[in-house]
Amino acid sequence: MSDAKKAIAEGSTFLGIEFGSTRIKAVLTDKEYNSLASGSFSWENKLVDGIWTYGLDDIKEGVRACYKGLKEDVKNKYGEDLTTVGAMGVSAMMHGYMAFDKDGKLLVPFRTWRNTITEEASDKLTEALGFHIPQRWSIAHLYQAILNKEEHVGKIDFFTTLAGYIHLLLTGEKVLGIGDASGMFPIDSKTCDYNAGMLDTFDNLSEVKSAGIKIRDILPKVLCAGERAGVLTKEGALFLDPEGTLKEGVSVCPPEGDAGTGMVATNSVAKRTGNISAGTSVFSMVVLEHDLSKAYPELDIVTTPSGEQVAMVHCNNCTSDLNAWVSLFREFAKTFGQDISDDELYGGLYKKAMEGDPDCGGLLAYNYFSGESITGFNEGRPLFVRKPDDAFNLSNFMRTHLYTALGALKLGNDILIKEEKVKVDFFFGQGGFFKVRGAGDKVMAAALGTTIKLMETAGEGGPWGQAILAGYMMQKEEGESLEKYLSDKVFTNVSVETCEPEEKDVKGFDEFIKNYSAGLAVEKAAVESLR
Predict the structure, then answer these.
(1) Could you tell me where the beta strands, DSSP code E, fall in 304-368?
(2) Span 309-330, mean pLDDT?
(3) What does each C-alpha distance from 326 to 349, 394, 404 come to in angstroms?
(4) Rounded CA gap, 213 and 236, in Å?
(5) 476, 431, 463: which is closest to 90 by C-alpha?
(6) Spatial distance between the Cα atoms of 20 and 117, rounded to a whole number of angstroms
(7) Cα(271)–Cα(287) distance, rounded to whole angstroms?
(8) Residue 185 in 3-state DSSP?
(9) Scanning 153, 277, 293, 312, which has its CA 20 to 30 A from the CA of 266?
(10) Binning pLDDT at 50, 70 and 90, where does residue 313 land?
(11) CA 432: distance to chain centroid?
(12) Cα-flanking dihedrals φ and ψ of residue 89, to 5°?
């Protein structure tokens, strides 16, 4: 019997499931975190009545289909039925708003991180708390609902994130990992819990008092990496695996956000380490050595899964508009009888972009599928513009769309690095933006003017990172930190590719950003004219 087959038969494996923006994915690993099998389910958010959302049925059916794919992969590869695992955990795209009544009924459709409908709440809470509260945070959604006098507010018994909701279905526990919790309400890293003073301030806001809300009563309990977060119940096992093969009793680690799993999957939980996740959205994270001098609307303060402070630059838009243009080229090719695979299409177009001028030949684009808080947009309008004498060709066109995917990220990081003088030795990258080597990594290095490193797991890090957190809960030694566990037991022999920024590309991206910043008025006019 092979080692992998034996591990599966004995249940000495770890399972991570992550709800990404475009895909739900499950990864099964052995105790050394070698990937044994996987399953996935593709999905898309929908704009319903002006709200970006995923339907409850899509959430439930999606994770079941994903898990079924994992089971089938295990059976096909090893001839074994997947009946149990050593430990498991769930992660998901961070923030957003899922509010439930005392009977567990979802009161309003899931409001995702992509929505930019809470500007008033964000501004008022930032002023009241003296701490930047982004529009996508759960507390901003709750307070906006209170300000709007929405009927459902009086019925709220509990609210949480998507990861917290799935964890509740699996275990019956109303808990959340501290990294994901830091996208619900500000965290005090010293106590590893919600900031007590800010909780009091929120409860004392006049509108909150009038609504009869007590914030401590409706938030999930905060847990740190390594803590136990319940076990898979009989109902939870049947929810995930309606065929009844999966057994109850599996230990479950705290549910985390995709930012936390990204940090874990790239070994970026130590101070002065940074990581970037780039896909439908894009965000960078740097573990801080000290507090920032003040609050910035472009910078969010969240935490690692262990509770260390992290400065995050989160942008709602990254590859959606880029993917739309690639789909257009796919349609063009099919019109002339050419059936090109995704790998060939993306690889060819991304590499073509690298032949373009470092400043994109003057071309300009905005990839705002949805609103972008960093640049002050509550609605999205993808836009491509050029002057008659710009160098308009395919290479510059594609390079422009790779550049603009990182435009807002560049603006936020310039504040962090140039104004706050935050030190970061390099960034680890993960996500679909980096799948074509020599393109995504090269553009990111030019955008941030720093070294970009990619691991073997760069394209699929999230669910693998959550499997590591499940394993850490089970295998850590007494007093062993997550940072030490990752360095000593997980990333001891991992292949890393390094991309250094080239001076001409850095200068070219800086020139593009000057045009990008100056042209924001054009994008604003496009939003207004197409309302």
Answers:
(1) 309-315, 364-366
(2) 95
(3) 8, 12, 15
(4) 30
(5) 463
(6) 21
(7) 5
(8) coil
(9) 293
(10) very high
(11) 12
(12) -165, 160
What does the alpha-carbon distance between residue 361 and residue 44 come to, in Å, rounded to a whole number? 34
Distances (CA, A) of 8 to 15, 64, 74, 82: 11, 20, 8, 7
- pTM here is 0.83
Cα 88 from Cα 63, distance rounded (Å): 14
Burial call 427-464: b when 16+ CB within 10 Å, e when fewer: bbbbbbbbbbeebbbbbbbbbbbbbbbbbebbebbbbb
Q: Are 254 and 223 in contact (CB under 8 A)?
A: yes
- Record the tokens describing residue 72, joined without a space: 């089938």
Bridging pattern class, strands 51-53 and 46-48: antiparallel
Structure tokens at 20: 């990404």
367 and 404 Cβ atoms separated by less than 8 Å: yes
Tokens of 307: 């509770």
Three-state DSSP string of 23-73: EEEEEEECCCCCEEEEEEEECCCEEECCEEECCHHHHHHHHHHHHHHHHHH
CA distances from 85 to 71, 339, 361, 481 (A): 12, 41, 54, 24
Provide the token pair at 460.
């699929």
**What's the pLDDT tens digit per position in 370-428?**
889 889 898 889 999 999 999 999 999 999 999 999 999 999 999 999 999 998 888 99
Residue 421 sits at the vertex; the CA angle it makes with 420 and 425, to the nearest 5 degrees, is 130
